[in-house]
Design a protein that fits this description.
By secondary structure, the protein is an alpha+beta fold. It has 3 domains: 110 residues, Acyl-CoA dehydrogenase/oxidase, N-terminal domain (Butyryl-Coa Dehydrogenase, subunit A, domain 1, Orthogonal Bundle), CATH 1.10.540.10; 121 residues, Beta Barrel (Butyryl-CoA Dehydrogenase, subunit A, domain 2); 134 residues, Butyryl-CoA Dehydrogenase, subunit A, domain 3 (Up-down Bundle), CATH 1.20.140.10. Helix content is 52%, strand content 13%. A hairpin with a 5-residue loop joins β2 and β3. α13 runs antiparallel to α14. It is globular. Belongs to the acyl-CoA dehydrogenase family. Pfam families: Acyl-CoA_dh_1, Acyl-CoA_dh_M, Acyl-CoA_dh_N. Its cofactor is FAD. GO terms for molecular function: acyl-CoA dehydrogenase activity; flavin adenine dinucleotide binding.
């Protein structure tokens, strides 16, 4: 099937020939290599607790080599960055739609979270030293990273609540204290750098300038014993080894004075600006991969329905199944149009100008895909909740996206407040309708 049949017609004219070629290559790479490699990946993942977090499946590096040969590498970093693949957010969004179909595909192409967001803000805000030390090996796929923001016992979607502190002591060293959790990627043995959201000031007059993002050498910090990766947190029973979603504890960890010039990303007090620039495109990436998950699940159900007899009749021939399947195809197309529209609007300006579209996509896509997965599991019956299909794992991962990068409620609140601000203009418009009745009646 031509790649153009997968792309909404309204966006075709916005794609470059090079972009179309990369989208086709991505689809073929995922179908031919990544989906079959998922099974191998989980077979190679050690069940030995001593090795599970110390080794990574061999198939990953082989896939990375193949992806580099195909030119499918770092496609997420838009053409605004010299370090990127030179594609638009719209073009990468369409690639991500396929990457979401296989667990190994994002890492195979170096487009996996949280590295994508971390690389983007290092590219945008990093010093020459930070780019050489951390961004370059991340872009090469030689190391991994983690973003430490979420904290236990507080609403971390509002960064004003972030309490992990970084304060200078008498010797001029920066001292970190606090507890982070759900630090995705911190369990990976290749994780070499943490980007840590910290409170560095207590100025009540400028609360949005009180936080900074610090670039911390993870292995150096752990070696001191003053920064510890305490444990991985399970998500619906999945530990996501060797990646992990970890608890990290800072107990008077000191950044030496001589390293101070390299620890702040951009500068002290820019934490809010940095995380907002990080999250906008990242939400689009998550949503497009989610659409890939939903489409993959529907494909699995199509296979199941063609071979499962219900009272002597294939499930696919039953009207109730056909109607439900059609409804989910409509739902996923709605999400696709919404997300691609948000990606295109980012390309036309920046993530800030597309806040409304990003919020809508972030709210609707994960919950719609979650509903699709729930139905697909139901169509499989008991097998759907077992390890013998991908559906249960996909469900667990998709459910977290309704919390990750801001819960539904935060985005709904933001969207609602923005829409209410438009009410005076709408009221004025409708008043003009009434006052024009007499004028129109005289026509």
């Amino acid at each position: 099937m031509s790649i153009k049949e997968d792309i909404p017609a309204i966006f075709l004219a916005q794609l470059s020939p090079r972009g179309l070629e990369a989208i086709q290559k991505t689809k073929d790479f995922v179908n031919d290599y990544c989906i079959p490699a998922d099974k191998i990946y989980y077979e190679q993942l050690s069940e030995d607790p001593a090795k599970r977090w110390a080794l990574t499946p061999e198939i990953t590096e082989k896939l990375k080599k193949k992806a580099k040969e195909l030119g499918l590498w770092n496609m997420f970093l838009s053409k605004h960055y010299a370090e990127g693949g030179g594609y638009t957010n719209l073009e990468y969004g369409l690639m991500a739609m396929y990457l979401g179909r296989a667990h190994v595909a994002p890492e195979a192409t170096n487009t996996n979270a949280p590295d994508t967001g971390n690389m983007e803000i290092l590219a945008r805000y990093g010093t020459p030293y930070q780019k050489e030390k951390w961004l370059k090996p991340l872009l090469n796929g030689d190391i991994r990273s983690a973003f430490l923001m979420t904290e236990k016992g507080t609403s971390s979607s509002n960064a004003l609540n972030i309490a992990t502190s970084a304060k200078k002591n008498a010797r001029g060293n920066l001292v970190l204290n606090g507890f982070k959790w759900f630090a995705s990627g911190a369990g990976d043995p290749r994780c070499a750098v943490w980007l840590v959201m910290c409170k560095t000031s207590e100025d009540k007059k400028t609360p949005y300038n009180n936080h900074s993002v610090l670039v911390i050498d993870a292995k150096k910090a752990i070696a001191t014993g003053k920064a510890k990766v305490l444990r991985p947190l399970n998500v619906f029973g999945y530990d996501d080894a060797p990646h992990g979603h970890c608890e990290v504890f800072f107990d008077n960890y000191e950044v030496q004075a001589e390293d101070m010039q390299n620890v702040y990303l951009a500068k002290d007090g820019m934490g809010f600006e940095i995380i907002q620039s990080r999250l906008g495109p990242g939400r689009i990436h998550h949503c497009m991969r989610s659409i890939g998950v939903g489409e993959f699940a529907l494909g699995r159900v199509a296979q199941r329905a063609s071979n499962r007899l219900i009272f002597g009749k294939p499930m696919k021939d039953r009207e109730s199944f056909q109607v439900a399947f059609a409804e989910w195809k409509i739902a996923i197309e709605r999400c696709r149009l919404m997300v691609l529209n948000a990606a295109h609007k980012i390309d036309l300006g920046n993530a800030k100008l597309a806040q409304r579209e990003i919020a809508m996509a972030k709210i609707d896509t994960p919950r719609t895909v979650l509903q699709i997965l729930d139905w697909c599991i139901q169509m499989y019956g008991a097998e759907g909740v077992s390890q013998d299909t991908e559906l249960a794992r996909m469900y667990a991962m998709s459910r977290t996206l309704r919390i990750a990068d801001g819960p539904d409620e935060a985005h709904l609140g933001q969207l609602g407040r923005a829409e209410v601000k438009k009410f005076p203009a709408l009221e004025k418009l409708y008043q003009s309708f009434e006052t024009n009745v007499a004028r129109v009646a005289k026509l």
